[in-house]
Amino acid sequence: MLDNEEQLSERALAQLLADDELLTLPQVAEKLGLRITRVHDLLSAKQIIAVELEGHRYVPAAFFNDKGAISKHVSGVITVLADGGFSNSEIFAHLFTADETLPGRPIDALHGHLAREVIRRAQALAF
C-alpha cells in the first residue's frame, strides 16, 4: 500500500487509464438501467470505484461484463483490496498495471479463466 504522500496523482492515473474507455456516472447509470443516485450508492458500497480526472468522475468500461452488468469478479477484487486498506488509486494501479506473471493486466484477467487467481493474489496483498 502507498502512504498518503505517495498516492497516485491524477496525471499518473490518467496515463494508466489512457487506453481504456471511461464512462461518466450518467453513462454508468444508463448502462445499468439505474438512476444516478443508485450509481452513487454502488460507489459508496465499493461495488465499483471511480477515478476523478479534471474534476469529473469516471468508471472504466472494463468493470462491466459483455452483458452490461458489473462483473462480479471486479466487485470482489475491489472489496478485498478496499477491506485491506487500499485506496481507490491503489486499486486502479493494481488492476490496470500489466503483470507478466498473469500475463497481462489483472482487470483483463478478471473476465477470463484467471479470475480466481487474480482474486487470490488480491487477498494475499490485502492481508
Task: Explain this structure.
The chain is mainly alpha-helical. 48% of the residues lie in helices and 9% in strands. It has a 3-stranded antiparallel β-sheet with strand order 1-3-2. A hairpin with a 2-residue loop joins strand 2 (51-53) and strand 3 (56-60). The longest helix is centred in the middle third of the chain and has 12 residues, at 72-83. The termini are close together. Mean pLDDT is 91; it is low at 1-6. This is Rv2175c family DNA-binding protein. Pfam families: Rv2175c_C, Rv2175c_wHTH.
Brief description of this entry?
The protein has 127 residues and is mainly α.
Quickly list its features:
single chain, 127 residues, mainly alpha, three-stranded antiparallel beta sheet, 7 helices, 3 strands
Reconstruct the topology from this structure.
Layout: H1 10-16, E1 22-24, H2 25-32, H3 36-44, E2 51-53, E3 56-60, H4 72-83, H5 88-96, H6 106-109, H7 115-126
Antiparallel strand pairs: 1-3, 2-3
> Uncertain spans, ≥5 residues at pLDDT below 50?
1-6
How many β strands by DSSP? 3
Q: In this structure, how is the largest beta sheet organized?
A: 3 strands, antiparallel
* Cross-sheet strand order for the largest sheet: 1-3-2
Which structural class matches the secondary elements? mainly alpha
Give me the number of helical elements: 7
Sum up the overall morphology in one term.
globular
Straight-line N-to-C gap: 11 Å
Order of helices and strands: HEHHEEHHHH
**Percent of residues in helices:** 40-55%
Work out the strand percent: 5-15%
Task: State mean pLDDT (0 to 100 scale).
Answer: 91
Write down the Rg: 14 Å
Organism: Corynebacterium pseudodiphtheriticum
Protein name: Rv2175c family DNA-binding protein
Domain Rv2175c C-terminal: 72-126
GO molecular function, one term: DNA binding
